Amino acid sequence: MTDDVLNRPPVHALLTDGTTVCIRPVLPGDHDQLEGLYEEMSPENLRLRFFAASRRSATAAADRACASARPGYRALLAETKGQVIGLAEYDTGGGRDSAEISVAVADGLHHRGVGTLLVEHLVSAARSDGVTTFTADALSENREVLRLFTDLGLDVTRRFEGAEVRCTIALDEDDAYLTAVEARGRAADVASLVPLLRPKAVAVVGAGRKPGSVGRALLHHLHAGGYTGRLFAVNPSATNILGVPSYPSITSLPRTPDLVVIAAPAPAVPTVAEECGKAGVRALVVVSADLDGTQAQALLTACRTHGMRLVGPNCLGISNTDSDTSLDATFAAGHPQPGSAGVAVQSGGVGIALLDGLSRLGIGVSTFASLGDKYDVSGNDMLQWWESDGRTDLALLHLESFGNPRAFSRTARRVTRRMPVLTVDAGRTDAGRRAAASHTAAAATRTMTRQALFTQAGITATHSIGELLATAALFHTQPHPAGTRVAIVTNAGGAGVLTADACAEAGLVLPQFTPGLVVDLLAVLPSGAAVGNPVDATAAVSEDQLRECVDRLMAYPGIDAVLLALVPTAVAAATGDDLVRALTAGPGRQARPVALVRLEQDVAVSLLPAADGGTIPSYAEPQAAARALAHAARRAAWLARPAGTVPALVGVDTGRARQITETYLAAHPDGGWLDPLICADLLACYDIPQLPWAWADTEDDAVLAAERLGGVDGRVVMKAHWPGLVHKSEHHAVHLDLRGEDQVRAAYQDLESRFAGLMTGVFVQPLAGRGTELFAGVVQDDVFGPLVLFGLGGTATEVLADHAARLAPLTDHDVHDLITAPRCAPLLFGARGNGPVDLEGLEQVLLRLSRMAEDLPQLAEADFNPVLATPGQVTVLDARIRLLPRRPQDPYLRRLR
Q1: CA-to-CA distance for 380 and 385, rounded, in angstroms?
Q2: How confident is the model at residue 439 (pLDDT cuts 50, 70, 90)?
Q3: Three-state DSSP class for 873?
Q4: Which of 48, 279, 700, 856 has the smallest CB count inside 10 Å?
Q5: pLDDT band for position 431 (50/70/90)?
Q6: Is the distance from CB of 246 to CB of 232 less than 8 angstroms?
Q7: pLDDT at 432
């Protein structure tokens, strides 16, 4: 054990049955418990572990695990409620890349994932230590440990040596391993949520006898909502509240509840939580607010110590409308209507609005969780629940924060291929966020980071609750359009114009119709109809004529959706025609989506019943309908594209890059901007192409460098350098287009004179040829991880703000999206007859930048500006990199918040 290991904080995680365990380094004081772990094993299990049934092995194993810290050795234990139940350890034996691993699990606790969880954490620790391979010896009859290694998701090879098997486990982190970890985590997570969302018994703490308290409202909702399990109140001053039996304490209840809802004052919450944990309660919902730091920590400690899942505090509560449960543990005004939408929010007010809106629309709710301050249960947990509950086909989220965005992204990418995941992009205006003064940090906003997360994960991000509900109504009732082509039909020209504007603003396309379709439409519409797009059917159109028109448009292959903008007219009223019925009398769900805009409608969105039992969305504003259709088209495009992969890269020396980083930070404990030489060395580790350059700290050296490096017609560029300089052009610290010794000397003298006392030298580069100046960079977000940015470069990059961003690691799709998203993209593909730039080379620069950021968590930001792109090559002309002392974090390691 090293001192670093001993100082690592404990981590809590879930076993396959949903039990919470603590994973932590072994400490010297654990000796007796570890010895007991082995002593309590059966002789057979001792033989399988040590190849002999000697009891002396227990003492030796405990001695080894608790010995003084030593390089190359790590030991992690699993404990629950203070009892050690498993141990995993590795020892490099003085080597560097390979380590011997061993695992032990307490008798009676096999097949619950203890060993697998320990090994996962040991794998993560080994990677951070530079270990690339585990080896393990096992008896060939020890099927359990052999299966453990095989099922990890890592590449395992076996070599049989008589009665023993030598296993070699490669620790490379690839998608197969992450997928296996996710599958185990999902099963454990869902199991842990069963007591929360499908409890057999519930108790409410804080339900008063007088009306007006939150606790009483919660108890009333549970009782009146038809909860199917046992229901209790906890109140020392009452024996019955609202017809529900009441008891003085949790310990006095006739049975231990699975779930306890706490609505007690903040100072009492930790005590109640501890009492619940000791009684064996499995889940808490804490609606109480205003817990101070000490109370909050005590609440979370009680939950972790006793293995309770926690929703809240400061929340509205939870609901599960499944008829087998009928759980409504909220204090909303009414009960949510049963349905198929899963809802998770942090804001109680947003939760009430969504519950009301979904119930009014008839979509209804499967399960609802108001996460509040989100100490434990998160949006990631709820996504995994909805993925497996068999009832949810639409997920709605309102998240103000992300505990583990990269784990959330992987979960969301998987879930959103099975059901739409919609969110409100809350907190979009973090305008003051600016890190150190580089181009990358200035360009990277929290809005851009969140949008990158949503885009890459396939999440539909809306800007308001109204837009969220409008989009959910379309997703719930209509198929996704195959593209963005929309046909508009109206009985009033003005309404058609408004709808056309809304569609164009939303990014939808109104294609012109073929002559054949025009003839067909004119044949069924009244005289005077204008058959462009929009189709103005005029106020004289009848119900039958409108139906025929829509039928022909739905059969036309040149469009992807039909949008009707209808207004009530005296003509239709006089003839008894119901133009809305022209649409709803047919099938409600067809091959292409169809929606209505009714400007007189008194609600923002409603669902109209169709003849076949389906429904059709109707909107009061054309903008709402257009935005919903645009969201549906983007989702369809995302689903149609195969999942991206992170390309393998050649010529990458991660080991040397980490050595460079560690060496720099050892000399600069507070971090800082790398000097040009170290920066160039780091780029070389990732084979990122750089323009040749030479360092000069005297005038004569600058002249020699210019003679050696002269670029186009012998011309060079000279750039001053001093520690901390980022924007050279802003300081006028650059001389361009220098030719000949005199100009080089004059430039050096100018820089030396103006920056006396600052400048430590200059670097000289050949003058680059003509091309497109681009910008590429990365910034490490404290929450989201590395964010890669790309766009138009040069001195005006921040002013023009023509940037796109994606979270690392970049897949092949992400790189394509980065290159095509900025407004300058046409320049890269040959606009103005210049021919396309080296797109493959550009992709490689972005992929290698992403890899560097993934490999080096200490890389706070990197700024490549300009990156010169020409048809023949892509070259980084100037690069800046800043390092900070940061401990690597494994975002995919299974652990609770």
Answers
A1: 9
A2: very low
A3: coil
A4: 700
A5: very low
A6: yes
A7: 35
Task: Assign 631 to helix, strand or coil.
Answer: helix
Helix H or strand E encompassing 56: helix 56-65
- Burial of 70 per CB tally in 10 Å (0-12, 13-18, 19+): exposed
Q: What's the pLDDT band for 3 if we cut at 50, 70, 90? A: very low
What gap in Å lies between CA 198 and CA 202, rounded to an integer?
10
The model carries a pTM of 0.89
Helix or strand run (H / E) with residue 849:
helix 839-855
Report the C-alpha gap between 513 and 498 in whole angstroms: 20
Residue 154 near residue 169, CB atoms below 8 Å: yes
Q: Are 295 and 265 in contact (CB under 8 A)?
A: no
Q: Which amino acid is at 328?
A: D
Beta bridge partners of 777: 789, 863
Placement of tokens 């296993």 in the chain: 167
Instruction: Answer yes or no: are the C-beta atoms of 183 and 388 closer than 8 Å.
Output: no
Q: Which of 118, 99, 116 lies closest to 167, judged by CA?
A: 99
787 CB neighbour count, 10 Å cutoff: 25
Query: Is 13 in contact with 21 (CB distance < 8 Å)?
Result: yes
pLDDT at 350: 93
Residue given tokens 């032990």 in the structure block: 104
Over 80: is that where the pLDDT of 454 sits? Answer: yes
What's the confidence (pLDDT) of residue 574? Answer: 64
pLDDT of residue 47: 86
Which residue type occupies 839? L
Query: Among candidates 721, 719, 720, 723, which has minimal Cα distance to 667?
Result: 723
Instruction: Characterize 136-159 residue by residue with b for buried, 16 or more Cβ atoms within 10 angstroms of its Cβ, and e for exposed.
Output: bebbeebeebbebbeebbbebeee
Q: Quick one: which of 47, 25, 46, 44 has its CA closest to 35? A: 46
Q: Which residue has the tokens 């994973």?
A: 23
The order of strands in the sheet holding 133-139 is 11-14, 20-25, 73-80, 83-91, 98-105, 133-139, 164-170, 155-161
- Tell me if 191 sits within 8 A of 183, measured CB to CB: no
Instruction: Name every residue whose Cβ is closer than 8 Å to that of residue 130 and which is 6 or more positions away in sequence.
Output: 96, 97, 655, 658
Write down the number of H helices and E strands in the chain.
30, 40
Half-sphere exposure of 556 (CA within 13 A, CB side): 25
Helices (H), 307-361: 348-361
State whether residue 614 is helix, strand or coil: coil
Write the CA distances from 805 to 452, 825, 864, integer angstroms. Answer: 6, 14, 14
CB 706 within 8 A of CB 764: yes
Contact call for residues 577 and 602 (beta carbons, < 8 A): no
Please determine, for residue 6, whether its predicted confidence score (pLDDT) is greater than 50. no
Q: CB atoms < 10 A from the CB of 695, how many?
A: 17
DSSP tag of 159: E
Q: What is the pLDDT of residue 873?
A: 93
> At a CB cut-off of 8 Å and minimum separation 6, what does 221 contact?
317, 328, 329, 330, 331, 332, 335
In this prediction, residue 437 carries a pLDDT of 37
Q: Would you call the peptide bond into 534 cis, given omega within 30 degrees of 0 as the criterion?
A: yes
- DSSP summary character for residue 512: P
How do 133-139 and 98-105 pair as beta strands? parallel
Per-residue H/E/C for 522-586: HHHCCCCCEECCCEECCCCCCHHHHHHHHHHHHHCCCCCEEEEEECCCHHHHHHCCCHHHHHHCC
What is the mean pLDDT of the segment spanning 148-167? Answer: 93
Look up residue 759 and give its two tokens.
């400048």
N residues, the chain: 897
Name residue 603's amino acid. V
Among 353-357, 366-370, 760-764, the least confident range = 760-764
Looking at residues 190-210, what average pLDDT do you find? 95
